[in-house]
Amino acid sequence: MHIFPTPRADSVTDLPAWHPWRVNLADSAFLRACRRQPVPHTPVWYMRQAGRSLPEYMKAREGVPMLTACETPDMVVEITLQPVRRYGVDAAIFFSDIVVPLKAIGVDLDIKPGVGPVVADPIRDARGIDALRPLEPGDVPYVTEAVRALVGELGGTPLIGFAGAPFTLGSYLIEGGPSKNHDRTKAMMYGEPALWHALMERLTDIVLEHLRVQVAAGASAVQLFDSWVGAVAPDDYREFILPHTRRIFEGVEGVPRIHFGVGTGELLGLLGEAGADVVGVDWRVPLDEAARRVGPGKALQGNLDPAVLLAPWEVVERKAREVLRRGREAEGHVFNLGHGVLPSTDPDQLKRLTDLVHEAH
Ligand code: CP3
Protein backbone atom coordinates (compact mmCIF):
# COMPACT_ATOMS: atom_id res chain seq x y z
CA MET A 1 0.00 0.00 0.00
CA HIS A 2 1.27 3.48 -0.86
CA ILE A 3 1.12 6.04 1.88
CA PHE A 4 0.73 9.28 -0.02
CA PRO A 5 2.27 12.31 1.63
CA THR A 6 -0.34 14.95 2.40
CA PRO A 7 0.39 17.81 0.00
CA ARG A 8 -0.34 21.48 0.29
CA ALA A 9 -1.72 23.07 -2.84
CA ASP A 10 1.51 24.85 -3.64
CA SER A 11 3.72 21.92 -2.90
CA VAL A 12 2.09 19.50 -5.33
CA THR A 13 4.71 20.28 -7.96
CA ASP A 14 7.33 18.90 -5.55
CA LEU A 15 5.58 15.53 -5.51
CA PRO A 16 6.70 12.65 -7.74
CA ALA A 17 5.09 12.60 -11.21
CA TRP A 18 3.07 9.46 -10.45
CA HIS A 19 1.44 11.03 -7.41
CA PRO A 20 -2.34 11.30 -7.98
CA TRP A 21 -2.46 14.74 -6.39
CA ARG A 22 0.00 16.15 -8.84
CA VAL A 23 -2.42 15.65 -11.65
CA ASN A 24 -5.57 16.89 -9.99
CA LEU A 25 -5.47 19.28 -7.10
CA ALA A 26 -3.45 22.27 -8.30
CA ASP A 27 -5.37 22.16 -11.58
CA SER A 28 -8.79 22.25 -9.93
CA ALA A 29 -11.04 24.95 -11.33
CA PHE A 30 -11.54 26.39 -7.84
CA LEU A 31 -7.83 26.89 -7.10
CA ARG A 32 -7.20 28.19 -10.61
CA ALA A 33 -9.99 30.79 -10.29
CA CYS A 34 -8.65 31.87 -6.89
CA ARG A 35 -5.29 32.45 -8.58
CA ARG A 36 -6.93 34.29 -11.49
CA GLN A 37 -5.85 31.64 -13.99
CA PRO A 38 -8.06 30.47 -16.91
CA VAL A 39 -10.65 27.86 -15.92
CA PRO A 40 -12.50 25.14 -17.89
CA HIS A 41 -15.74 26.19 -16.14
CA THR A 42 -16.69 28.62 -13.38
CA PRO A 43 -16.08 26.82 -10.08
CA VAL A 44 -18.87 26.81 -7.53
CA TRP A 45 -19.34 25.96 -3.86
CA TYR A 46 -21.79 27.27 -1.27
CA MET A 47 -21.30 28.73 2.17
CA ARG A 48 -23.21 26.43 4.58
CA GLN A 49 -23.47 23.83 1.84
CA ALA A 50 -23.42 21.27 4.65
CA GLY A 51 -26.22 21.95 7.09
CA ARG A 52 -29.89 21.94 7.83
CA SER A 53 -31.02 22.12 4.19
CA LEU A 54 -29.78 18.53 3.72
CA PRO A 55 -31.86 15.59 5.02
CA GLU A 56 -28.67 13.51 5.32
CA TYR A 57 -27.22 16.23 7.57
CA MET A 58 -30.29 16.21 9.82
CA LYS A 59 -29.96 12.43 10.10
CA ALA A 60 -26.25 12.53 10.91
CA ARG A 61 -26.78 15.23 13.55
CA GLU A 62 -29.76 13.55 15.27
CA GLY A 63 -29.21 13.80 19.04
CA VAL A 64 -25.66 15.18 18.69
CA PRO A 65 -25.00 18.76 19.84
CA MET A 66 -23.33 20.98 17.23
CA LEU A 67 -20.02 21.37 19.08
CA THR A 68 -19.82 17.65 19.84
CA ALA A 69 -20.23 17.00 16.11
CA CYS A 70 -17.39 19.46 15.39
CA GLU A 71 -15.11 17.58 17.80
CA THR A 72 -15.86 14.14 16.30
CA PRO A 73 -13.67 13.52 13.22
CA ASP A 74 -15.90 10.79 11.72
CA MET A 75 -18.89 13.13 11.80
CA VAL A 76 -16.90 16.06 10.46
CA VAL A 77 -15.69 13.94 7.53
CA GLU A 78 -19.14 12.57 6.74
CA ILE A 79 -20.91 15.94 6.93
CA THR A 80 -18.21 17.74 4.94
CA LEU A 81 -18.52 15.16 2.15
CA GLN A 82 -22.34 15.19 1.98
CA PRO A 83 -22.73 18.26 -0.27
CA VAL A 84 -19.73 17.23 -2.40
CA ARG A 85 -21.44 13.91 -3.15
CA ARG A 86 -24.85 15.42 -3.72
CA TYR A 87 -23.99 18.51 -5.76
CA GLY A 88 -20.57 17.87 -7.27
CA VAL A 89 -19.36 21.26 -6.06
CA ASP A 90 -15.79 22.32 -6.87
CA ALA A 91 -14.67 22.65 -3.25
CA ALA A 92 -15.51 21.22 0.15
CA ILE A 93 -15.66 23.46 3.22
CA PHE A 94 -14.51 21.94 6.46
CA PHE A 95 -17.50 21.28 8.72
CA SER A 96 -16.89 23.17 11.94
CA ASP A 97 -17.83 26.52 13.44
CA ILE A 98 -16.02 29.80 14.04
CA VAL A 99 -16.25 29.35 17.82
CA VAL A 100 -14.50 25.93 17.86
CA PRO A 101 -10.98 27.34 18.54
CA LEU A 102 -12.40 29.52 21.34
CA LYS A 103 -13.98 26.53 23.02
CA ALA A 104 -10.69 24.66 22.52
CA ILE A 105 -8.81 27.21 24.65
CA GLY A 106 -11.39 26.98 27.39
CA VAL A 107 -13.96 29.70 26.68
CA ASP A 108 -17.27 28.59 28.19
CA LEU A 109 -19.64 28.74 25.23
CA ASP A 110 -22.28 26.74 23.42
CA ILE A 111 -24.11 26.86 20.10
CA LYS A 112 -27.84 27.11 20.74
CA PRO A 113 -30.03 25.77 17.93
CA GLY A 114 -31.83 28.60 16.12
CA VAL A 115 -29.78 31.19 18.03
CA GLY A 116 -26.07 30.71 17.43
CA PRO A 117 -23.02 30.96 19.71
CA VAL A 118 -23.74 31.94 23.32
CA VAL A 119 -20.91 32.86 25.71
CA ALA A 120 -21.39 32.22 29.45
CA ASP A 121 -19.04 34.94 30.69
CA PRO A 122 -18.85 37.77 28.12
CA ILE A 123 -15.56 39.67 27.84
CA ARG A 124 -15.83 43.22 29.12
CA ASP A 125 -12.40 43.97 30.63
CA ALA A 126 -8.67 43.13 30.70
CA ARG A 127 -9.30 40.10 32.91
CA GLY A 128 -11.50 38.54 30.24
CA ILE A 129 -8.91 39.25 27.56
CA ASP A 130 -6.10 37.73 29.62
CA ALA A 131 -8.05 34.49 29.80
CA LEU A 132 -7.78 34.11 26.00
CA ARG A 133 -4.62 32.03 25.93
CA PRO A 134 -2.86 31.13 22.64
CA LEU A 135 -4.16 28.15 20.69
CA GLU A 136 -1.80 25.22 20.23
CA PRO A 137 -2.22 22.47 17.61
CA GLY A 138 -2.68 19.98 20.47
CA ASP A 139 -5.85 21.84 21.50
CA VAL A 140 -7.63 20.80 18.30
CA PRO A 141 -6.43 17.25 17.49
CA TYR A 142 -9.85 16.46 16.01
CA VAL A 143 -9.35 19.23 13.44
CA THR A 144 -6.01 17.86 12.28
CA GLU A 145 -7.39 14.33 12.18
CA ALA A 146 -10.52 15.28 10.23
CA VAL A 147 -8.67 17.50 7.71
CA ARG A 148 -6.14 14.72 7.01
CA ALA A 149 -8.89 12.15 6.51
CA LEU A 150 -10.84 14.52 4.27
CA VAL A 151 -7.88 15.35 2.07
CA GLY A 152 -7.51 11.61 1.46
CA GLU A 153 -11.21 11.16 0.70
CA LEU A 154 -11.58 14.22 -1.50
CA GLY A 155 -8.84 13.41 -4.02
CA GLY A 156 -8.75 16.27 -6.51
CA THR A 157 -11.47 18.32 -4.82
CA PRO A 158 -9.89 21.08 -2.72
CA LEU A 159 -10.77 21.45 0.95
CA ILE A 160 -11.32 24.98 2.27
CA GLY A 161 -10.29 25.55 5.86
CA PHE A 162 -11.74 28.53 7.67
CA ALA A 163 -11.83 30.70 10.75
CA GLY A 164 -13.90 33.57 12.05
CA ALA A 165 -12.18 36.96 11.90
CA PRO A 166 -11.28 38.86 15.07
CA PHE A 167 -14.10 41.41 14.77
CA THR A 168 -16.84 38.79 14.32
CA LEU A 169 -15.41 36.54 17.06
CA GLY A 170 -14.91 39.59 19.28
CA SER A 171 -18.55 40.56 18.82
CA TYR A 172 -19.76 37.15 20.08
CA LEU A 173 -17.34 37.31 23.01
CA ILE A 174 -18.22 40.87 24.04
CA GLU A 175 -21.99 40.74 23.42
CA GLY A 176 -22.27 37.21 24.82
CA GLY A 177 -24.24 36.05 21.78
CA PRO A 178 -25.65 37.18 18.45
CA SER A 179 -26.22 40.93 18.22
CA LYS A 180 -28.08 43.17 15.81
CA ASN A 181 -26.12 46.38 16.25
CA HIS A 182 -22.93 45.23 18.00
CA ASP A 183 -23.37 48.07 20.51
CA ARG A 184 -21.10 46.83 23.28
CA THR A 185 -18.51 45.75 20.74
CA LYS A 186 -18.37 49.23 19.24
CA ALA A 187 -18.47 50.79 22.69
CA MET A 188 -15.19 49.01 23.49
CA MET A 189 -13.74 49.80 20.06
CA TYR A 190 -14.41 53.54 20.36
CA GLY A 191 -14.25 53.97 24.11
CA GLU A 192 -11.37 51.71 25.13
CA PRO A 193 -9.15 51.40 22.07
CA ALA A 194 -6.19 49.91 23.99
CA LEU A 195 -8.41 47.16 25.37
CA TRP A 196 -9.93 46.66 21.92
CA HIS A 197 -6.56 46.22 20.21
CA ALA A 198 -5.42 43.86 22.98
CA LEU A 199 -8.51 41.72 22.33
CA MET A 200 -7.96 41.80 18.56
CA GLU A 201 -4.29 40.82 19.08
CA ARG A 202 -5.22 37.77 21.14
CA LEU A 203 -7.89 36.72 18.67
CA THR A 204 -5.53 37.23 15.74
CA ASP A 205 -3.00 34.84 17.31
CA ILE A 206 -5.71 32.23 17.87
CA VAL A 207 -7.20 32.58 14.37
CA LEU A 208 -3.79 32.45 12.72
CA GLU A 209 -2.83 29.28 14.53
CA HIS A 210 -6.19 27.69 13.76
CA LEU A 211 -5.76 28.38 10.04
CA ARG A 212 -2.18 27.12 10.10
CA VAL A 213 -3.31 23.86 11.70
CA GLN A 214 -5.78 23.31 8.85
CA VAL A 215 -3.25 24.19 6.12
CA ALA A 216 -0.58 22.00 7.73
CA ALA A 217 -3.03 19.09 7.70
CA GLY A 218 -3.74 19.58 3.99
CA ALA A 219 -6.39 22.29 3.45
CA SER A 220 -5.92 23.81 -0.04
CA ALA A 221 -7.38 27.25 0.66
CA VAL A 222 -8.66 29.23 3.62
CA GLN A 223 -11.61 31.55 4.11
CA LEU A 224 -11.71 34.19 6.82
CA PHE A 225 -15.33 34.86 7.81
CA ASP A 226 -15.78 38.43 9.04
CA SER A 227 -19.52 38.01 8.76
CA TRP A 228 -20.58 41.02 10.84
CA VAL A 229 -17.85 43.53 9.93
CA GLY A 230 -20.25 45.33 7.56
CA ALA A 231 -21.48 47.11 10.70
CA VAL A 232 -18.29 49.21 10.74
CA ALA A 233 -17.52 52.36 8.71
CA PRO A 234 -14.47 52.31 6.37
CA ASP A 235 -12.31 54.70 8.43
CA ASP A 236 -12.96 52.64 11.55
CA TYR A 237 -12.24 49.42 9.69
CA ARG A 238 -8.88 50.83 8.67
CA GLU A 239 -8.00 51.92 12.20
CA PHE A 240 -9.45 49.18 14.40
CA ILE A 241 -9.61 46.04 12.27
CA LEU A 242 -7.44 46.07 9.17
CA PRO A 243 -4.05 45.82 10.97
CA HIS A 244 -5.22 42.58 12.57
CA THR A 245 -6.76 40.94 9.50
CA ARG A 246 -3.62 41.92 7.57
CA ARG A 247 -1.47 40.05 10.08
CA ILE A 248 -3.66 36.98 9.57
CA PHE A 249 -3.32 37.02 5.78
CA GLU A 250 0.42 37.67 6.00
CA GLY A 251 0.75 34.70 8.31
CA VAL A 252 -0.99 32.16 6.09
CA GLU A 253 1.21 31.31 3.15
CA GLY A 254 1.09 28.93 0.24
CA VAL A 255 -2.68 28.68 -0.23
CA PRO A 256 -5.31 31.07 -1.64
CA ARG A 257 -6.93 33.22 1.02
CA ILE A 258 -10.58 34.31 0.80
CA HIS A 259 -12.00 37.19 2.85
CA PHE A 260 -15.77 37.35 3.32
CA GLY A 261 -18.25 39.56 5.13
CA VAL A 262 -21.91 40.56 4.84
CA GLY A 263 -23.01 44.13 4.07
CA THR A 264 -19.45 45.09 3.12
CA GLY A 265 -20.20 47.14 0.00
CA GLU A 266 -18.33 50.15 1.38
CA LEU A 267 -15.47 47.97 2.65
CA LEU A 268 -14.70 45.85 -0.42
CA GLY A 269 -11.52 47.74 -1.30
CA LEU A 270 -10.28 47.50 2.28
CA LEU A 271 -11.07 43.77 2.52
CA GLY A 272 -8.80 43.26 -0.48
CA GLU A 273 -6.18 45.64 0.91
CA ALA A 274 -5.98 43.51 4.04
CA GLY A 275 -4.25 40.90 1.90
CA ALA A 276 -6.74 38.32 0.62
CA ASP A 277 -6.40 36.77 -2.84
CA VAL A 278 -10.18 36.48 -3.20
CA VAL A 279 -12.79 38.90 -1.88
CA GLY A 280 -16.21 37.47 -1.04
CA VAL A 281 -19.15 39.69 -2.01
CA ASP A 282 -22.69 39.53 -0.65
CA TRP A 283 -25.72 40.04 -2.94
CA ARG A 284 -25.98 43.81 -2.44
CA VAL A 285 -23.22 44.85 -4.86
CA PRO A 286 -23.17 43.38 -8.39
CA LEU A 287 -19.88 41.66 -9.21
CA ASP A 288 -18.84 44.04 -12.00
CA GLU A 289 -19.21 46.97 -9.59
CA ALA A 290 -17.46 44.92 -6.85
CA ALA A 291 -14.55 44.32 -9.25
CA ARG A 292 -14.19 48.08 -9.65
CA ARG A 293 -14.31 48.64 -5.90
CA VAL A 294 -11.80 45.87 -5.13
CA GLY A 295 -9.41 46.83 -7.91
CA PRO A 296 -6.88 44.75 -9.85
CA GLY A 297 -5.04 41.69 -8.61
CA LYS A 298 -7.97 40.02 -6.82
CA ALA A 299 -10.50 37.32 -7.67
CA LEU A 300 -14.10 37.62 -6.47
CA GLN A 301 -16.43 35.10 -4.87
CA GLY A 302 -20.22 35.33 -4.86
CA ASN A 303 -22.92 36.48 -5.00
CA LEU A 304 -26.42 35.11 -5.61
CA ASP A 305 -28.89 36.14 -2.89
CA PRO A 306 -29.53 32.89 -0.95
CA ALA A 307 -33.24 33.80 -0.80
CA VAL A 308 -33.44 33.59 -4.61
CA LEU A 309 -33.24 29.80 -4.20
CA LEU A 310 -36.66 29.89 -2.52
CA ALA A 311 -38.19 31.21 -5.79
CA PRO A 312 -39.16 29.05 -8.81
CA TRP A 313 -36.29 27.63 -10.88
CA GLU A 314 -36.83 30.11 -13.76
CA VAL A 315 -36.01 32.95 -11.39
CA VAL A 316 -32.95 31.16 -10.04
CA GLU A 317 -31.70 30.55 -13.57
CA ARG A 318 -32.14 34.15 -14.68
CA LYS A 319 -30.48 35.56 -11.55
CA ALA A 320 -27.62 33.02 -11.66
CA ARG A 321 -26.86 33.83 -15.30
CA GLU A 322 -26.75 37.50 -14.35
CA VAL A 323 -24.21 36.74 -11.60
CA LEU A 324 -22.10 34.76 -14.08
CA ARG A 325 -22.27 37.54 -16.67
CA ARG A 326 -21.17 40.22 -14.24
CA GLY A 327 -18.58 37.87 -12.71
CA ARG A 328 -16.77 37.82 -16.05
CA GLU A 329 -15.67 41.38 -15.28
CA ALA A 330 -13.57 40.05 -12.39
CA GLU A 331 -10.06 38.66 -12.92
CA GLY A 332 -11.24 35.38 -11.41
CA HIS A 333 -14.71 34.31 -10.28
CA VAL A 334 -15.73 31.63 -7.81
CA PHE A 335 -19.52 31.28 -7.91
CA ASN A 336 -21.16 31.22 -4.48
CA LEU A 337 -24.15 32.65 -2.67
CA GLY A 338 -23.95 36.07 -1.07
CA HIS A 339 -24.21 34.36 2.35
CA GLY A 340 -24.98 30.87 3.66
CA VAL A 341 -27.57 28.44 2.31
CA LEU A 342 -30.88 29.03 4.11
CA PRO A 343 -32.15 25.95 6.01
CA SER A 344 -35.44 25.92 4.02
CA THR A 345 -33.63 25.65 0.66
CA ASP A 346 -34.64 22.70 -1.54
CA PRO A 347 -31.41 20.75 -2.24
CA ASP A 348 -32.68 20.03 -5.78
CA GLN A 349 -32.46 23.74 -6.55
CA LEU A 350 -28.80 23.74 -5.47
CA LYS A 351 -28.11 20.69 -7.61
CA ARG A 352 -29.63 22.38 -10.66
CA LEU A 353 -27.75 25.58 -9.89
CA THR A 354 -24.44 23.72 -9.65
CA ASP A 355 -25.06 22.08 -13.02
CA LEU A 356 -26.06 25.39 -14.55
CA VAL A 357 -22.85 27.09 -13.38
CA HIS A 358 -20.76 24.20 -14.69
CA GLU A 359 -22.45 24.17 -18.08
CA ALA A 360 -22.75 27.94 -18.63
CA HIS A 361 -20.48 29.63 -21.15
O1 CP3 B 1 -20.26 26.54 5.39
C1 CP3 B 1 -20.24 25.36 5.76
O2 CP3 B 1 -20.92 24.45 5.22
C2 CP3 B 1 -19.25 24.96 6.86
C3 CP3 B 1 -19.74 25.00 8.15
C4 CP3 B 1 -19.89 26.28 8.93
C5 CP3 B 1 -20.75 26.34 10.04
N1 CP3 B 1 -20.58 27.54 10.65
C6 CP3 B 1 -21.62 25.25 10.44
C7 CP3 B 1 -22.77 25.58 11.31
C8 CP3 B 1 -19.24 27.50 8.84
C9 CP3 B 1 -18.25 27.97 7.80
C10 CP3 B 1 -19.68 28.28 9.94
C11 CP3 B 1 -19.15 29.60 10.24
C12 CP3 B 1 -19.95 30.49 11.10
N2 CP3 B 1 -20.54 30.20 12.30
C13 CP3 B 1 -20.11 31.85 10.86
C14 CP3 B 1 -19.56 32.57 9.67
C15 CP3 B 1 -20.37 32.27 8.47
C16 CP3 B 1 -21.66 33.02 8.38
O3 CP3 B 1 -22.69 32.36 8.37
O4 CP3 B 1 -21.61 34.24 8.34
C17 CP3 B 1 -20.88 32.39 11.90
C18 CP3 B 1 -21.32 33.81 12.03
C19 CP3 B 1 -21.13 31.34 12.82
C20 CP3 B 1 -21.86 31.41 14.09
C21 CP3 B 1 -23.02 30.50 14.03
N3 CP3 B 1 -22.94 29.15 14.26
C22 CP3 B 1 -24.36 30.80 13.69
C23 CP3 B 1 -24.88 32.18 13.37
C24 CP3 B 1 -25.07 29.58 13.69
C25 CP3 B 1 -26.50 29.34 13.30
C26 CP3 B 1 -27.43 29.28 14.45
C27 CP3 B 1 -28.76 28.70 14.01
O5 CP3 B 1 -29.09 27.60 14.50
O6 CP3 B 1 -29.44 29.29 13.19
C28 CP3 B 1 -24.17 28.58 14.05
C29 CP3 B 1 -24.46 27.15 14.15
C30 CP3 B 1 -24.05 26.39 12.94
N4 CP3 B 1 -22.82 26.43 12.37
C31 CP3 B 1 -24.84 25.47 12.22
C32 CP3 B 1 -24.05 24.95 11.21
C33 CP3 B 1 -24.41 23.88 10.19
C34 CP3 B 1 -26.26 25.09 12.57
C35 CP3 B 1 -26.18 24.01 13.59
C36 CP3 B 1 -27.40 23.14 13.54
O7 CP3 B 1 -27.45 22.26 12.67
O8 CP3 B 1 -28.27 23.32 14.40
UniProtKB/TrEMBL annotation:
Q: How does it assemble?
A: Homodimer.
Pathway(s) per entry: Porphyrin-containing compound metabolism; protoporphyrin-IX biosynthesis; coproporphyrinogen-III from 5-aminolevulinate: step 4/4
Principal location class: cytoplasm
According to the UniProt record, one GO cellular component term is:
cytosol
Q: Where is this site: Transition state stabilizer?
A: 97
Annotated GO biological process: protoporphyrinogen IX biosynthetic process
Return the EC number: 4.1.1.37
- This chain's protein is named Uroporphyrinogen decarboxylase
The record's function comment reads: Catalyzes the decarboxylation of four acetate groups of uroporphyrinogen-III to yield coproporphyrinogen-III.
NCBIfam families, per the entry: hemE (TIGR01464)
Q: Which UniProt keywords apply?
A: Cytoplasm, Decarboxylase, Lyase, Porphyrin biosynthesis
Show the catalytic activity: uroporphyrinogen III + 4 H(+) = coproporphyrinogen III + 4 CO2
Compartments annotated for it: namely: Cytoplasm
Gene Ontology molecular function, alphabetical: uroporphyrinogen decarboxylase activity
Similarity annotation: Belongs to the uroporphyrinogen decarboxylase family.
Recall the taxonomic lineage recorded for the source organism: Bacteria, Bacillati, Actinomycetota, Actinomycetes, Streptosporangiales
